[in-house]
Amino acid sequence: MRDIERRSFMQGVASVAMLGGFGAAGMAPAAFGQTALEASSLRSNAKSFLWGAEDFAQGTGLFTGAGLKLSLAATNRGVNQDALIGGAADILLGAPTQNMRVQIRRQPVKMICGWVNKFASNVVIRKAAADKAGVTEASAPVQKAAALRGLKIGTTGPGGGPDQLARYLMRMAKIDPATDAELVPIQGGGAAILAAYERGTIDGFVLSSPTSDVAISKFGAVYLFNMVTNPPPELEDYLYITASVSEKTAKEKPAELTAYCKGIALALRGISGDPAGFKAWAKTHFGDMDPALFETAFSNNIGMYMKTPVPSRKQFDLNLEFLDAELKQLAQPGIPAGFRFEDAYDLSFAEKAMASL
Questions:
Q1: In terms of domains, do 99 and 136 share one?
Q2: Which of 235, 258, 287 is the last residue of a domain?
Q3: Residue 110 pairs with which residues in a beta bridge?
Q4: What's this model's pTM, rounded to 2 decimal places?
Q5: pLDDT, mean of residues 297-311
Q6: DSSP-derived secondary structure letter, 184
Q7: Please, where are the H alpha helices in the chain?
Q8: d(CA 183, CA 167)
């Protein structure tokens, strides 16, 4: 498995150019000489506003300024904890509940920071399906969730954030995803999901912007849930994107992880303090996006970033509650008694980085 995952990672490294938009400062050695620290980061797909803090730090040289040379790669798979544990990368981006799934099975993984506090996998369906159900994006959450009955909904696969959100909404409307609807796992990222939607293989999907925005602007979909601008009230402060590491990496690369957290902290400070500057950078990063679509996507996503990369215990508790309900729905053992915030997180790197600002 380790060799397979390493080959997968190296294939992803070869496609780092797909990430686009990185300024020379983000990829070159620091002005004062070669950076002393190196680390690698992995995400599920190449481009998304979900990765905004990391990409912004990379593209504007914030990681380099912190003394870190970071390499990026994408797998086009929804869940990648096996790759992290197998040593394919030092840092993995993704949903905290994905990490908690392996942590409760005593796998050596820790989360070190986070930056998105909205469950920003959006739900889009065909307008005809929304009209048939008599709902719009402004309808009550339970009414919108009920519109999923009988539909084929694309996700990135079991255990991924999009799959988890689809199941959560179906629970809300008392829909059994095994009998009353169909969850269709699709690998290949946003392009593959859009292709499946265009072919009619699925009636809608759960995925982040800008894929959800493209479905609306080009393929006649409508938002059922825009999870950044109009989430269910209970998910208003839901930690959705974290950076995780193996315990081995935490022991062997503390300086690298502190530098990484410092770059993320500076990126979040920049996003919050100078949103116009972040927007200007994002236009370059998403340079192949239609300008009108970019304006929509930016407006839909700018509100999802945290002010600092330090997750809270309240966010942990909500993630725990969310995951426990999902496991029970799947007839799997729930969260073990005694699973604590400290079992999920090692915030020493983020706290040290924040202290250095």
A1: no
A2: 235
A3: 245
A4: 0.83
A5: 96
A6: E
A7: 2-14, 24-27, 52-59, 62-65, 81-85, 96-103, 127-133, 141-146, 161-172, 189-199, 211-219, 247-252, 254-273, 275-285, 291-301, 313-329, 341-344, 348-355
A8: 9
- pLDDT at residue 35 above 70? no
Which residues, including other chains, have CB under 8 Å from residue 238's CB and lie 6 or more apart?
117, 118, 119, 231, 315, 318, 319, 322
Q: What percent of the chain has pLDDT over 90?
A: 78
Cα 261 to Cα 250: distance, rounded to the nearest angstrom: 13
pLDDT for 11 equals: 37
- Rounded to 10 degrees, the C-alpha dihedral 223/301/23/290 comes to 30
Is residue 3 pLDDT above 70, yes or no?
no
303 contacts 111 by C-beta, under 8 angstroms: no
Domain end, chosen from 235, 259, 276, is at 235
Domain count of the chain? Answer: 2
Q: What is the mean pLDDT of residues 287-305?
A: 94
What is the DSSP-derived secondary structure letter of residue 135? Answer: -
pLDDT at 238 over 60: yes
Instruction: Provide the domain limits for residue 40.
Output: 2-116+239-355
Give the gyration radius of the chain's Cα atoms. Answer: 19
* Domain CATH code at residue 187: 3.40.190.10
DSSP assignment of 254-268 equals HHHHHHHHHHHHHHH
